[in-house]
């Protein structure tokens, strides 16, 4: 035991020295002397740009998660969430709709809420509407489609209905909270003893830091895969598959998943496909992307059991497809 | 006093993140990744990282060795447990972008990415003309900027804010001047307008710069002079540009930056009507320090 600890201590020292050296190298060496393939340079730039865009939102997310962890008790949650399943789902979707978040920032918040005793289905409702329906997204969608209210309203309406349906199906299919870590299941009541405010705030920040390290590795992995696909896979080849409305809708959903765009920026990309695909397919892109994409699937896998993430993925995909298609018949 | 190695490591990484974000702003490299309009978010990130760093530093040393008893029934890693492979992989992943970020200079997107994204010419990818509409509607309608506070209203060169009157003036210039100058700040607007109404602008002279991009199936005298339009970050870049014709286009390599004078003509490609530029003079230039263009944002009430 003693020996093992020593060994891992050594290993970690080697590791940290390695990081330090790697970070200091560029100070002494002009990196241009390193020959890195051009495509990797492109990949790295896209990868970092996704991170630089997402990290501020994740930081806000982990701070909110830290706040929930320290200041919100299970009693609060019990008092707030309606007993009736349908009402609970409805409420969570509405709360998500007024809460501005992006799809990566919201994952730590949902994890913390469910850990605190929010039922899974309510957490899912919040997870789905949070990034999709908020003032910034409404505004950017409205603008991207040339001040066309119709698309913005459809996006919000169809998205809200789909989120409700998905959360309700989840409430029927799953009885437990589906969190990955078993410890989370043994919820002990938060100690009611009131600590002074300052240590609690410091405790909140500490939780946020740990949460950041927990979450960011998945965000980083997801961003890397998304950048990889952007660099090496042609969107063009994908577009040529979409001949019928069903095909083009599926193509646009696949595109939304792979591109992993932030919900605030995706409307402009969606708008750029208007000549190529029918409105229905573009609507699918706009509704599907904020609910699930590559980057946040990887983050969800870190929080929930793989089986649940898979079922959720299938549910979101099929229900969004169905609802969007139905909306075109209206 | 007990030294907690993992807490130290987290502090180190937070410190490096703080430096990385601060450095992006100090060197101006941020514009190679993000539309400068959103600078505020990454500045805020640098400040938040710094605050977290200060808090984290207090955890590196503790009075006595006590495993943090988790009164808050949390499940995450508090960094008090021992090392294992999973943890090493975790920290390595977090360190990875910092390492590549510091070591590898940002690249400018090039024609290989353009080819993946697809372009306006041709049937499958007529989205190019689309793009423009998106950009144009932005121009026409974006009276409100969703991120910036009032303090940020001072127009920085690259932020591409224009007041209403300035914008109208620039737009009028497009219609009245004999030679259209495709300046960076109005590039996407002018491009949209010309692409939408090629007949209106046929016969006018035009001056623009961009990088060379070629689609499969181009004639030997065809190429596209293109720019990337960045809405938020590089990952959402879309490509816009004019189909350009002149003898010897095949001798110019992709990704070469060129400046041309030419005349707008109405032509067609794959049955789509579009403006085609006939080059009168062309010169090869260095890649500009600001290779990207951004949608115009009009300020209301100026």
Summarize the topology.
The complex is a heterodimer of chains A (330) and B (302).
Chain A: H1 2-28, H2 38-71, H3 74-80, H4 85-98, H5 106-115, H6 120-132, H7 135-144, H8 149-173, H9 197-232, H10 235-239, H11 245-259, H12 266-271, H13 279-291, H14 294-303, H15 306-329
Helix pairs in contact in A: 2-5, 2-9, 4-6, 4-8, 5-6, 6-8, 6-13, 7-8, 8-13, 8-15, 9-14, 11-13, 13-15
Chain B: E1 2-3, H1 5-27, H2 39-57, E2 61-62, H3 85-103, H4 111-117, H5 127-141, E3 161-163, H6 164-176, E4 179-181, H7 187-196, H8 198-201, E5 205-213, E6 222-229, E7 238-245, E8 257-269, E9 272-285, E10 297-299
Parallel strand pairs in B: 3-10, 4-5, 7-9
Antiparallel strand pairs in B: 1-2, 5-6, 5-8, 6-7, 8-9
Question: How would you describe this protein?
Answer:
The complex is a heterodimer of chains A (330) and B (302). Chain A folds into 2 domains: 1-35; 40-329, no CATH class. Chain A has 15 helices and no strands. Chain A has helices at residues 2-28, 38-71, 74-80, 85-98, 106-115, 120-132, 135-144, 149-173, 197-232, 235-239, 245-259, 266-271, 279-291, 294-303, 306-329. Chain B has 2 domains: 2-103, no CATH class; 111-299, Bacterial OB-fold (OB fold (Dihydrolipoamide Acetyltransferase, E2P)), CATH 2.40.50. Chain B contains 8 helices and 10 strands. In chain B, strand 6 and strand 7 (238-245) form a beta hairpin. Chain B is elongated, with a radius of gyration of 25 Å. The interface between A and B is large, with 99 and 95 residues. Chain A: Pfam families: ArsP_1. Chain A: Keywords: Cell membrane, Membrane, Transmembrane, Transmembrane helix. Chain A: One of its GO terms (cellular component) is plasma membrane.
